[in-house]
Write the structure tokens for this entry.
Amino acid sequence: MQEREREEFLRVAERAREAAAGLAPLPRAAKDAALHAVADALVASAPQIVKANEADVARARESGTSEYMIDRLSLTSERIAAIAEAVRKVAALPDPVGETVRGNVLPNGLDLRQVRVPLGVVGIIYEGRPNVTVDAAALCLKSGNAALLRGSSSAYESNAVLVDVMQGALAGTEVPRDAVQLVPGTSRESVRHLMRARGLVDVLIPRGGASLINSVVEQSTVPVIETGVGNCAVYVDAAADVDQAVTILLNAKTQRPSVCNAAETVLVHQDIAAEFLPKALDALREAGVTVHGDEAVRAYSADVVPATEDDYYAEYLSLDIAARVVPSLDEAVRHIRVYGSGHTEAIVTTSQTAARRFVALVDSAAVMVNASTRFTDGEEFGFGAEIGISTQKLHARGPMGLPELTSTKYVVTGEGHLR
């Protein structure tokens, strides 16, 4: 069984590699036409997609899946229309392929250019969100890459239909049909095949929780771009505007608590704690947030529960937040270095000196000054759609848009030059 599954995966991966070679040189017009065909096909096939999704949702309910996870899994005609519109937005974005990153004429007369090129075959492993199937495929196609998609087994019926619809749409375009494929099988072994396909798959991108990401990073022989767990902190400096700080903290925690750029920790300078914490704790309580605080925080409200060491490491993804009073900006930075995930941190302050020091010392993918952590997002940054937010330091860091789905090569043009 396992050997048959492996052979089937290898056939899929080889077709993806061949499709990537055919896709890479296509002009923007051909890729955009294919994306519009995909968007149109998704809308036209909405009843079929919804029917398959209903089977996934029913199975999830039978297994006791939480309503929050079921909401992420569910597709409706309205959601499919929104997904199709997102594909059209990707088509409208500039094509990064062929862009000159840098270039000059060398003293010997050689023309040297570094240009963007597709990565090749991009494998994506993700959890029960079938919209990612389309989002990832669209971003890969636009950047000239073939996509090998491995969603969770909980969304298999939905993903299979979505990929079938996209392949049917591509069949009438210049983009190879096999540029979008689903990894066959629903077993963990099928994930391992993808992670071990070095030489067939050029890069692997995991999207999901800490356990998924860690598993892929530790087990994969294919190079991995690590998208990040978000233990994001808001530091309220001694020189903060208290009302502004409360508003920013509420937005960062409650605007959408289940995403990686939501705040999970608030650090408060001791010199402003007496003014800030009573207002902030009242506002958080009214918003339904449970605060896990140290002794200094608990002194301001009986509603605060004692924080454990694990609370400061936690990516809650819920209406919970860890809180601590710190004696200095440098201690806030030390806390972030120990407990943070390198995703996004924010400082609220009216002091330019404090802001500059915080920005210089904090080693995260994004640092906000007097702004919510929720802004770390490809669309909010003006990049359009994103395939994830990278917290690593090699190749890509922060929101990964189309340019981050490319590599580069050097093109050197001479006139019979010899060395």
In short: The chain has a mean pLDDT of 95.
